[in-house]
Amino acid sequence: MATIFALTSASLVRSFAPYAAGSGISEIKCIIAGFVMKGFLGFWTLIIKSVALPLAIASGLSVGKEGPSVHYAVCTGNVISRLFEKYKRNASKTREILSACAAAGVAVAFGSPIGGVLFSLEEMSSYFPLKTMWRSYFCALVATAVLAAMNPFRTGQLVMFQVHYDRTWHFFEVTFYIILGIFGGLYGAFVIKWNLRAQAFRKKYLTKYAILEATLLATGTALICYPNMFLRIDMTESMEILFLECEGAEDYNGLCDKENRWKMIISLTFATIIRIFLVIISYGCKVPAGIFVPSMAIGASFGRTIGIVVQAIHEAYPKAVFFASCEPDVPCITPGTYAFLGAAAALSGIMHITVSVVVIMFELTGATTYILPTMIVVGVTKAVSEFFQKGGIADRMIWFNGFPFLDNKEEHTFGVPVSQVMTSDVVLLPATGLSMKHLDQLLLEDRYQGFPIVEDRVSKILVGYIGRTELRYAIDRVKRDRSISSNAKCYFSTAHNGSTPNPLTPNTPAPNTTFEGMASSSVDFSRFIDATPVTVHPRLPLETVMELFQKIGPRVILIEHHGKLEGLVTVKDVLKYQFKIEANEGFREERDRALSHSEEKLWGVIRNVAGWVGGKVHTASGGRIRLVGGDSIGRRGSPRFPQEHGTGGGGRNGHGPDSHIMDGTEQGHDDGVELEDR
Prior knowledge:
The longest helix is centred in the last third of the chain and has 36 residues, at 585-620. This protein has a three-stranded mixed β-sheet. The protein has a three-stranded mixed β-sheet with strand order 3-6-7. It has 22 helices and eleven strands. The two termini are 36 Å apart. It has four domains: 2-150, no CATH class; 171-401, Clc chloride channel (Orthogonal Bundle); 418-566, CBS-domain; 580-663, no CATH class. By secondary structure, it is mainly alpha-helical.
């Protein structure tokens, strides 16, 4: 059944909605920041992800539902907001809706409305004003109230692993809480590093075998996990068991028995190691997949192991000075609380979030007593995580996929003006003098997403800016309304055609425009230009320009001096400069060559194994069943594996069935640092 569920889930995603694969949090962060990904929040993505996610969870893969819950909550908000003109015409208000929906998705996944709001503030949104916080709070509140009314588990609990603790903690346990925090930081750094390598291997070799990969992963996971009592059950059920106190709760397979103590330690240790391996290779396969619950399950198993060890030490040396604060004849150590804190550490380590984790864990337990231990564990985890690398797995996936996203959590001190980063060779549109034929030829090139408008090419006095989409729409509109000559003159400023000025701000919807009364020899496009684009001085520090991109979210910022256009800068230009400054190119090239050699060897092993299995099946079936031979699987230049391995996987040109559809700041050809394939 696990194989069938995984096969169905991967087939639905591959056939109908490729964007439904994965978690979606990385892409949503970019979209909320102003990046455009057509179809990622569409209706079909919502439908397919809602159907494929339960199948992926039921298949037993080491993936969770919390990240995808955020994705389809945001999809729902986007689809509904498209029904209202207020949000359809205003991208800024739409992003507020998306931030609120992200909060609702986390609130429903964890039964934590306040934690959902803080997660949207801490992780998802680059700009979070007070009104957005209120809307997020209201959205999360309604979503949680509806979930509580539905009572999905028929127990009154919003999530399966919700627990309550009635015991306090002791100060000497802080030592072990620090150990849990260190584990959380090390776990996050280790999984992020090796998962990115697994993603690179998947993109390079397994793009054409997405369905087969998911199916084999589900089958292998079932075979590996079944012998272990903590891996054969669902991850949420496992956390519920590990969180519980021993006294007054159901004993799962002798978990609380002293006689089974070392057996449980060994079993939990193996469960932790195996689950880490499965998360590394499973997260990123082409099914809806989150990483929150798998990480929490790993932290819970490790934390319970530490709790059992501490309990055994206390029982062996009850009179030791270290345990002097324990009361006699009262259980001193509660292993379930260590599992709870371990889950918080692992979640914080993989996502690099702090406050929202503390609040989510508090809302899960309702125990104010354990707020301080949770803060200690999460604080240590954050310190250890930041020592190894900046940003959680969502941020690293943004970097890996090459999305033009500026993280507001990073601090930069470049000490250079924006003029050193800007693009000076800009295609300009004079306010008058261009013919319709010239505009059509210009739009045939995909390199430009917008055009500055100047009075003339000599003076370069800035008049405004028009995006490629707006220009295309205006030309199609005038050709639909009347017959127009290819030599007709085009005007982008009312001052040049004698019309009455009618300036429009970006937030003011344009009135219904008709070209029926205009002469066939001239066309006025002044209504479609942005007469007040974002402009800065050439000597403005680059750090300030980065803040403008983060908080305002423009596609492009124009550089002008005394009214004269000097150039323009996009997010990609800023990221290119950042990578050139921060990257150690020599070490990077040497490391990439070593990794490429290792990947080639691994792929060779996989090809040989596949060829051997195919040969055995062919022989056993008497020649009636023939699988792909080992000589043709994945060989470069073969029909099943083209020479350019980037096709279909978001390679250098970004074309193919799985390439991301982007527009806004990207250009067709980039020199210097590669942004689309790492």
